[in-house]
């Protein structure tokens, strides 16, 4: 079993990948005309979807890969590439996406909770690949339950951030969002390099080096 500090590292990494700061800024723009009840409903639905979908990939992710005959090493390389692209996108971030906010305003809490908040802002290829790869590292029920604990922790943090946005959203300027997102981009880039290196090394050992 990996050490507890590895779960802490995963919690921070998954937090960075989901980009909750940017999602909070979009949430603020989309719900500015909502009642308090509608805002809380949006938060609840978004958090529930985040938890359920990533938990599903915790238990079924490797089976899905096997169904499509995809090795975990290849998935690591692909996931690392996706994470690196996400990191580059965050490094060049200019703030919240006003086009998304304009196009989605007036939608119901359920609609904006599903798209764009839960998907693709919080749940995307980066977060899914991270969950699948880390789950594969130690195939045991205890490890899977600890992975669910990591996802639950991030779910609660996301709920708290969205709730705080209702009260302190005016402090979430584009400049503040940009600085935080670039810091998150650095964390994601580090994880991407680790995935790319480990996936490539294992693939080379398995397919190119003599046994």
Per-chain topology:
Elements: H1 4-18, H2 20-30, H3 36-67, H4 72-91, H5 98-104, H6 109-122, H7 125-137, H8 141-168, H9 174-207
Explain this structure.
- This protein is mostly helical and 211 residues long.
- It has one domain (4-206).
- 82% of the residues lie in helices and 0% in strands.
- The protein has 9 helices and no strands.
- The radius of gyration is 18 Å and the shape is globular.
Q: What is the global morphology?
A: globular
- Helices, by number, come to 9
Helix content: over 70%
Number of domains as seen in the coordinates: 1
In terms of structural class, how would the helical and strand content be classed? Answer: mainly alpha
What's the rounded overall pLDDT mean?
A: 83
* Rg on CA atoms, Å: 18 Å
* Number of beta strands: 0
Unreliable spans are none
What order do the helices and strands follow? HHHHHHHHH
**First-last Cα distance:** 27 Å
Main sheet characteristics:
none
Share of β-strand residues:
under 5%
């Amino acid at each position: 079993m990996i050490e507890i500090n590895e779960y802490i590292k995963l919690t921070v990494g998954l937090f960075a990948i989901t980009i909750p700061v940017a999602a909070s800024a979009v949430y603020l723009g989309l719900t500015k005309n909502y009642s308090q009840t509608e805002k809380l409903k949006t938060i609840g639905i978004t958090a529930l979807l985040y938890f359920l979908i990533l938990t599903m990939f915790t238990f079924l992710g490797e089976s899905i890969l096997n169904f499509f005959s995809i090795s975990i090493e290849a998935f690591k390389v692909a996931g690392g590439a996706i994470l690196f692209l996400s990191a580059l996108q965050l490094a060049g971030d200019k703030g919240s996406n006003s086009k998304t906010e304009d196009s989605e305003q007036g939608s119901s809490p359920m609609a904006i909770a599903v798209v764009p908040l839960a998907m693709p802002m919080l749940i995307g290829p980066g977060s899914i690949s991270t969950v699948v790869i880390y789950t594969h590292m130690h195939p045991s029920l205890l490890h899977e339950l600890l992975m669910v604990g990591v996802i639950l922790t991030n779910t609660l943090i996301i709920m708290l951030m969205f709730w705080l946005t209702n009260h302190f959203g005016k402090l979430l300027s584009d400049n503040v969002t940009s600085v935080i997102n670039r810091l998150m981009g650095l964390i994601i880039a580090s994880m991407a390099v680790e995935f790319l290196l480990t996936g490539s090394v294992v693939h080379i050992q398995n397919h190119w080096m003599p046994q």
